[in-house]
Design brief:
The structure holds two protein chains of two kinds.
Chain A (H helix, E strand, L loop, with lengths): L9 E6 L5 E6 L5 E5 L9 E8 L2 E14 L9 E6 L3 H14 L11 E5 L3 H14 L8 E5 L2 H9 L5 E5 L7 H12 L4 E6 L3 H10 L3 E4 L4 H11 L2 H7 L3
Parallel strand pairs in A: 7-8, 7-9, 9-10, 10-11
Antiparallel strand pairs in A: 1-2, 1-4, 2-3, 3-6, 4-5, 5-6
Chain B lengths: L6 E5 L3 H13 L3 E5 L2 H10 L4 E5 L7 H10 L7 E5 L3 H10 L4 E4 L4 H14 L15
Parallel strand pairs in B: 1-2, 1-3, 3-4, 4-5
Helix pairs in contact in B: 1-5
The chains are: A alpha/beta, B alpha/beta.
């Protein structure tokens, strides 16, 4: 399995004074984070960030762009690293988010249903295998549903009993954002929806506009998704989402 | 001497890399099947019987080590699976071991070295020691 950042997939809204952009943040630590974006600010720019996981534990922080990265290879998206301001308020905010999303093996969990929508049999099998391995030693496991196309996906979503939906943008006879839109409208705000795809900003914006919580450009780090699923299984998260 | 030509299936998103590898392997009498996408990999896997599968790690659709783990763990592929990449060797080794791949080759060493090591694997059943994983079954 590809290496993990050991972080949940965090939603981010950032601005350097111009219009804000919604995207994803990786590698959150107490002092830094990596913001995925093709809109690269200059090193030294002050940026404002709003970070959250699944709409919970939202924090507002400020920081300085410490370096920028162009996308050169698959798996290394373009973006910038930000060093958070060192004031007490920022430290407290980041600590709050880290505390809410850190691993807690002793946490009580409930099983949830995860729908994976992807036309590729190999990618569906890969996801299923990764879930099986990741949760093999854990007492409570998610239930996995899989859909190769929009018809099967809609039927499963319409059952109403789905808590996480991961949708590939490259679906035959549909686009991923159509499925995301249907999932959000049917399942409501408590569902956690991840859009994935080969595309960059345009695909991301379509997925987010349709209601996805986060968009992840392929190749995705499966363990980050699995870690996020495990987090969503915690009782306090289910209760906070009002989706027991 | 081999009674049947040795055969390799290579996955890489770069057409150029595939063309270079094809030419180099064919010069050594190895039959080469190539795939640029996961769909092509699946189609070639169903229609051919490779002696070795060589997977690039940094693929646009998925990490090659996740592909390797799935080939091994779900589809029960028995032939040697080798990962290749420009990633640092330590990371390459870790990813190969974690994926239950038999070994790895670094593109940083040049594609001629990649070809030499895979040819050695085809000839002897083993990669050079520096490219084997601890779980590598070719050692």
């Amino acid at each position: 399995m590809a290496s993990s950042t050991q972080n949940a997939l965090l939603r981010a809204e950032w601005s350097d004074g111009s219009s804000p952009e919604r995207t994803t943040v990786y590698e959150l630590t107490a002092t830094t984070a990596f913001v995925v974006t093709e809109k690269l600010p200059a090193v030294g720019t002050h940026v404002d960030l709003r970070l959250s996981f699944a709409g919970l534990a939202t924090i507002d922080v400020r920081g300085l762009v410490s370096h920028v990265r162009m996308s050169l290879d698959p798996g290394a998206p373009a973006g910038f690293a930000v060093e958070f301001d060192g004031d007490d308020k920022t430290r407290a905010a980041v600590t709050k988010l880290l505390r809410a999303t850190r691993p807690r093996p002793d946490a009580r969990r409930r099983t949830i249903r995860v729908l994976h929508v992807d036309p590729s049999r190999l990618l569906r099998d890969m996801f299923s295998y990764a879930i099986t391995k990741y949760f093999a030693s854990k007492r409570v496991k998610p239930e996995l549903l899989q859909a190769p196309d929009i018809h099967v996906a809609r039927a499963m979503i319409d059952s109403g009993d789905v808590h996480v939906v991961q949708v590939d943008n490259e679906i035959q006879s549909a686009t991923g954002d159509q499925i995301v839109k249907h999932a959000r409208a049917t399942l409501g705000p408590a569902a956690w929806i991840v859009g994935v795809g080969l595309g960059g900003t345009t695909t991301r914006d379509r997925m987010l506009a349709a209601g996805a919580d986060v968009y992840v450009q392929k190749p995705i780090v499966l363990t980050d998704v699995l870690y996020s699923i495990e987090l969503l299984m915690r009782e306090e998260v289910r209760d906070a989402l009002g989706a027991a | 001497m081999h009674s049947e030509p040795r055969r390799i299936l290579v996955l890489d998103d770069s057409r150029l890399v595939l063309d270079v590898l094809r030419a180099a392997f064919e010069a050594k009498g190895v039959v080469v099947d190539t795939a640029q996408t996961l769909d092509e990999l699946e189609a070639k896997r169903e229609s051919t019987t490779p002696d070795v599968i060589l997977l690039d790690i940094q693929m646009p659709e998925a990490w090659g080590d996740d592909v390797a783990a799935t080939l091994r763990g779900v589809y029960e592929v028995k032939v040697p699976i080798v990962l290749m990449s420009t990633l640092p060797v330590d990371e390459l080794r870790t990813r190969a071991a974690s994926a239950s791949a038999d070994g790895f080759v670094s593109k940083r060493d040049g594609l001629d070295k990649v070809v030499a090591r895979i040819t050695e694997l085809l000839d002897t059943g083993a990669l050079p020691a520096s490219g084997r994983t601890r779980s590598g079954r070719t050692s």
